[in-house]
Amino acid sequence: MGRGGGRRRDRLRWSKLYTFSCFRPHGADDGAGPSATGLGGPGFTRVVHCNNPALHRRKPLKYMLNHISTTKYNIITFFPKAIFEQFRRVANLYFLLTAILSLTPVCPFSAVSMIAPLAFVVGLSMIKEGIEDWRRFIQDMKVNNRKVGVHRGDGEFVYRHWEDLCVGDVVKVEKDQFFPADLLLLSSSYEDGICYVETMNLDGETNLKVKRSLEVTLALEDDESFKDFRGVIRCEDPNPSLYTFVGNFEYERQMYSIDPFQILLRDSKLRNTAFIYGVVIFTGHDSKVMQNSTESPSKRSRIEKKMDLIIYILFTVLVLISLISSIGFAVRIKLDLPHWWYLQPQSSNKLDDPSRPALSGIFHLITALILYGYLIPISLYVSIELVKVLQAHFINQDIHMFDEETGNTAQARTSNLNEELGQVHTILSDKTGTLTCNQMDFLKCSVAGVSYGVGSSEVEIAAAKQMASGADDHDIPYKMILALCHTAIPEINEETGAITYEAESPDEGAFLVAAREFGFEFFKRTQSSVFVREKHTSSKGVTEREFKILNLLEFNSKRKRMTVILKDEDDQILLFCKGADSIIFDRLAKNGRVYEPDTNRHLNEYGEAGLRTLALSYRVLEESEYASWNSEFLKAKTAIGPDRELQLERVSDMIERELILVGATAVEDKLQKGVPQCIDRLAQAGLKIWVLTGDKMETAINIGYACSLLRQGMKQICLSIPTGDQVAQDARKAAKESLMLQIANGSQMVKLEKDPDAAFALIIDGKALAFVLEDDMKHMFLNLAIECASVICCRVSPKQKALVTRLVKEGIGQTTLAIGDGANDVGMIQEADIGVGISGVEGMQICYFFYKNIAFGLTIFYFEAFAGFSGQSVYDDWFMLLFNVVLTSLPVISLGVFEQDVSSEICLQFPALYQQGPKNLFFDWYRILGWMGNGLYSSLIIFFLNICIFYDQAIRAGGQTADMAAVGTTMFTCIIWAVNMQIALTMSHFTWIQHVFVWGSIATWYLFILAYGMTLKSRDNYKILLEVLGPAPLYWAATLLVTAACNIPYLIHISYQRSCNPLDHHVIQEIKYLRKDVEDQTMWKRERSKARQKTKIGFTARVDAKIKQIRGKLQKKGPALTIHTVS
Q1: Euclidean distance between the first and the last CA atom of the chain, given in angstroms as a whole number
Q2: Which of the pair, 97 or 415, is modelled with greater confidence?
Q3: Which of 125, 199, 504, 524 has the fewest beta carbons closer than 10 A?
Q4: Are the beta carbons of 688 and 630 closer than 8 angstroms?
Q5: What is the mean pLDDT of the chain?
Q6: How far apart are CA 999 and CA 61, in angstroms?
C-alpha cells in the first residue's frame, strides 16, 4: 500500500472542546496510574513489544494468532464428535448393538437388514450436521481473509490477511473498515489523535464513540514515522470486559497509563476518520469480543429429550417381553423338545440344548431383543431430521418473511430446534436493530408552551407557519439550541451539495435535520467555530452566521445533559443546555419557568406515546461571570488525581444554573415495522418478553414505552448501584447490600399489591447485573423478574446477555427464545434453547411413530409365542426392512411439514392458540400413553383377528389353508392399511402431496409384493399376490375388516372429543367450515376476544388500562352528580 497518509491538518482538535484530559504522562509515583493496580501480578501479565511481532511467536510469550473459528467440528474432530452426537440418542445406541449382534448366529435376520437402516439414518444425520458446520466455516473464512495494512518494516505498509496478524504488529485501518484485533490507538488522521468508532457489533449501539490516542504518539503521523518505532505495553490478560482496560505504555523511557479510551476493539468499525494507526494487543480468541463469545453448543430440543424417555419405556417393554420369550423358550426346550422327535437337531448346539435350557434361554434372550427391536422406531430420528430440513427450506422460501427493502429472505442457519418455537415461554430480545431501525425521526416539539406536530411533516408545516407569522423571543433560541448544541460534523456531498451529519448520538442527527427545516442549517465546523445558515422567510434570503465555541460539556449517563458555551458576532456569550427534563427543571431560574407547566404536560404526553424527550434551555452570560467560571473550569480540566471528575462535575454545575426554559423535543427511535403489533400478539399468546440492550437506561425505557412493554401507570422497579466514595472492597460490599435491599423491597412491593390489574416492570443496568448474576443473588433477582410483567436489562455486555439467558433458561425450566441482529447477540442466541424456528406438529408426529411401531412390533411377539417361542418371525426380512424406511415414512413426514390445524392468518387472530404448545397439549403423557394404548389395541386386532380368520379356512381353489407366508403377508397388508388410514384421520389439512404420500404408500406395498413375488429370492412368497392372496376374497375381506376394526375406535374418540370436549382449534375449524366467520360476525368477534391471554403489556393492555382509567373517572363523577341533584 502507499507510503502516504498524512494527517488532515484542517480538521479539529477535539481535546480543546471536550472536558476529558488524556494527554498527560503518568510516572511511577502517580497513584492514579495503573502501576497501582498490580501490573505483572496475577491477571496482569501480558507484555507486548510494539512493532516487533517476531518476539510473540516463540516462548515464553507465544501469543495466539488472529485466526478465529466458530465451528463445532474440524477435519480431525468431525467424525468422532459427530458419531458421539448421533449415539447420544438412545435408539441409535440400541440399534448399534443389534447391528453388531446381527453378525452372530443368534440373529433371526440377515446382517444387511440390520446394518443398512442404521448406516442410512446415522449417515444422513451426519451429512446434515456437516453441511451446517461447513456454512459456519465459510463465514469464518470470509472474516479471516479480510485484509488490513500492516507495517512490515522500513516505514512500509502492506496488505495482509487478518488471520496472519500477530501481537505487536502495527496496523493501519482506513475509514469504514472493521478493526482486525484489539488495538492500542497510536494516532489518527485528526491532528490530536481523535477517531470515531461504531460499536454496534459489541454493544448494539449505533451512535459513534470518541477514542483518543496518547499525546506522546501523536508524532507517528504517517507511514515513514514507524520505521524506528519501538515501545512496550504491559497490561491485563485476555478477559471479556468490554468497558475496562488496565495497562501502561513504555515509550522513550517514559511510562504512560492506558485507559479504555485508547483501546479499539475487534469488530467495531472506524467511522468519520480517514485512517488510524494502532498496535495489536489481543488477537483471535484472546480479543474481548471473542472472549464474550461461547462455543457453538450442541442443543437438543425438549421434545427430543422426551423422546429418549419414551424410548427408555419402550426398551423396558422390549426387555420384558424378551425375558418372557426367553423363559418360555427355555421351558419348552427342557420339557417338550425331547418329545418332538420330528424336531430333533442333527447335532446338539448351545442354542437349543435340552440338557442346558438356561444357557439356551440366555441365547434366545439376545435373539428376542433383536427380533422385537421394531418396537423401537429406527426411522423416527431420520424422519424428524428430514421434517426439520424441509421446514427450514420453507422458512427460507416464505414470502411473509421476505424483506422488500434489502431483498433478503429468512435464513434458517440450523434446523435442529424448529419444533421448540411452538413451546416458547420467554423471549429475550436485543433492542437496537431488532426492535428498532437505528433511525431517529423528529416527530413533535414544544416551543414556548405550544406543542406542534403528530408527524414529521406536520412539524415542518407548523414551523413554516410560525416563521411566516414572525418568531417570538423564545423561537430563535429553540432553533439555535438544535443547530448548535452538539458535536456532529457536517459531510458535504461534492456532487449534489447535500449535507449529511456524522454524530455521536442519532438524536443529534435528527435535531440537526429538524433545525434545517426550521431555517437554521448547520453546515460547517472549524477548530474554534460553528457556522449556520439562517433563512429569512420575509426576504427569502439566507444569512451565514458564525458562533465561536468557548466550552463544551459533554453528555453522559450521570450528567444527563449537554452544554455548549458560544460567543456570537455581537460578542454576546450564550449558554445552550439540553438534557433530561428532571435535570433541566431543577436548574431553571425563577423567571425561566414561564413555560414549565405546559412543557411538562407536553413531555408527559410525548413520553406516553413512547417518544424520546429532551428539555431545551439557555442563558446569557456576562463577560466577567464567564471569565471567572472558565478559570475554575480550566483548573479542574487540567487537574491530576482521582477526584478530577468530581471537580469537573462541581464546576460544570456552577455555570449550568439560572437557565431559561424554551421548550422540548420528542424524537422517535423508529421501531421495526410491526414491532408493537408483534409484541401485543406475543403478550396475548402468553409469552414473557425480556429486552437485553447495550443502550443506556433512559433510551431503553423510551423504547419500552414505544413498543408497549412499558406504559403509564406501570410501576417501575429500577435496580442500580449507588455511587459513593468507598474504596474498591467496601464499594463492592455496599453495592451487594444495596442491591439485595432493592430486590427485597421490590419483591415486597409486588406481594403487597392488592390491585389484580397492577403491572410492574423491572429495569436493571449492566453494573448492577454483574452483581445479581452471582450465585448468592441470581435466584432472588429471577424470582422478582418472574413476578414483573416486563424486564429490561440496560448497558449489558454480550457475556451478560448470555448469562441472563442461561439464568432464565435454567431457573424457569421453560423454553427460551433469543432474538438479536449483531455479533454482540451471538452468545445470547447460542445460550438460549432456540434462535429461530417454526411452530410444528412434532408431538403428533412422534406419537404416531410409537403407535405404528408398537402395532407392528407386538404382532411379532404374539406370533413367536404362538409358535412356541421359537424365534421365528412371521414376516419376510424385506417386509421388515421396508416398513419404517419406505412404506410408512413419507406420510408422517408430510404430517410434520404440511399439517395446519388452522391457517397462519387465523392464528394471528386467535393468539391464545399458541398456548397449546407451552402447555404441551399434543405431547403430554396422557396423549403419549393414549397412542401407545392405541398401538397395543391395533396389534391385538391385527394378529388375533387374522389368526381367527385364517386358522382353518381354505383360501385357494384347491382347498389349501393359509401357510405362514400367506398369514404373514396378510397381516402386513393390514398393518400398512391401518397405520396409513390412522395418519389420514389425524390430518386436518390435506394437500395433493399428502394424498400422494398416504395412498401412494399403500400402492407401493402392492407394487412391491407383486415385483418381489416374481423373484426367486422371495422363497415362500413366490408369486404370493398373483397366485395365492390376490384370487382369494378372504384376503380382501380380512384387510377391510381388520383396517376398520383398528380405526373405528379412534374415529369414535375424535368425534366425541369434537362434540363434547373440543379444543380451541376444533371450535375454530368448525366455525370456518360452517362459514360462521362470514355469516355471524358477532360470534366471530366474541370468540376472537376470548382467545387472548390476559396480559399487562402490549398495545391492548395499554388500551385496557386507559379504558379502566376513564371508567374510574366517570365513576367518581357519578356520585357527585347524584348528590348535587338530591340537594
Answers
A1: 94
A2: 97
A3: 524
A4: no
A5: 76
A6: 69
Tell whether the model's pLDDT for residue 526 goes beyond 80. no
Q: Which residues are known catalytic residues?
A: 430
pLDDT of residue 729 exceeding 60: no
Q: 845 and 305 in contact (C-beta within 8 Å)?
A: no
CA 391 to chain centre: 19
Cell digits for 317? 417393554
- Specify whether the CB–CB gap between 809 and 816 falls below 8 A: yes
Residues above pLDDT 90, as percent of the chain: 7
Does 267 carry a binding-site annotation?
A: no
Tally of CB atoms within 10 A around 534: 17
Distances (CA, A) of 1027 to 128, 954, 959, 1012: 45, 14, 14, 13
Residues 6+ apart with CB under 8 A from 669: 436, 439, 440, 506, 612, 699, 702, 703, 706
Q: Cis bond leading into 338, ω under 30°?
A: no
Distances (CA, A) of 734 to 241, 597, 766, 796: 22, 39, 17, 21
Q: Does 431 appear as a known binding residue?
A: yes
Angle in degrees, CA 60, 63, 67, rounded to 5: 155
Does residue 223 have a known ligand-binding role?
Answer: no
How confident is residue 1125, by pLDDT bands cut at 50, 70 and 90?
very low
CB 998 within 8 A of CB 983: yes
Nearest to 777 by CA among 690, 716, 701, 719: 719
- C-alpha cell read off for 682: 406475543
3-state DSSP call for residue 598? helix
Q: In what order do the strands lie in the sheet with 247-251?
A: 46-50, 231-235, 247-251, 254-258
Q: In this structure, what C-alpha cell is assigned to residue 172?
A: 493501519
- 821 annotated as a binding-site residue: yes
Is position 578 annotated in a ligand binding site?
yes
pLDDT tens, position by position, 929-949: 888 888 889 989 998 898 888
Q: What secondary structure letter does DSSP report for 105?
A: T
| Cα-based distances in Å from 327 to 368, 374, 1072 | 11, 21, 57
pLDDT at 63: 85
Render 243-285 in DSSP notation, one character per residue. Answer: S---EEEEETTEEEEE-GGGEE-TT-EEES-SEEEEEEEE-GG
pLDDT tens digits, 114-136: 787 788 778 877 887 888 788 88
| Grid coordinates belonging to 841 | 406438529
Element (H, E) at 529: strand 529-535
The response to whether 555 counts as a known ligand-binding position is: yes
Q: What is the dihedral of CA 62, 77, 138, 394, to 10 degrees?
A: -150
Overall size of the chain counted in residues = 1127
Q: Is 751 annotated as a binding residue?
A: no
Contact 441, 666 (CB under 8 A): no
Phi, psi of 655 (to 5 degrees): -90, -25
Residue 375: what residue type?
L
Tell whether residue 430 is among the known ligand binding residues: yes
The pairs formed by 77-82 with CB atoms below 8 angstroms and a separation of 24 or more are 78/130, 78/133, 82/126, 82/129, 82/130
Tell me how many degrees the CA angle 998-1001-1006 measures, rounded to the nearest 5.
135
Residue 613, classed as helix, strand or coil, is strand
CA-based nearest residue to 249, from 222, 279, 270, 271: 279
- The C-alpha cell at 209 is 464513540
**Which residue do the cell numbers 445470547 mark?**
828
Residue with more model confidence, 4 or 817: 817
Q: By the 8 A CB rule, do 227 and 155 touch?
A: yes
**Pairwise CA distance, residues 271 & 1056, whole Å:** 67
Which secondary structure element, helix H or strand E, spans residue 937, and what is its range? helix 925-950
Task: Please report the beta strands in 902-1029, taking only residues with DSSP state E, as ranges in sequence order.
Answer: none
Which residues, 6+ apart, have CB-to-CB distance to 469 below 8 Å?
none
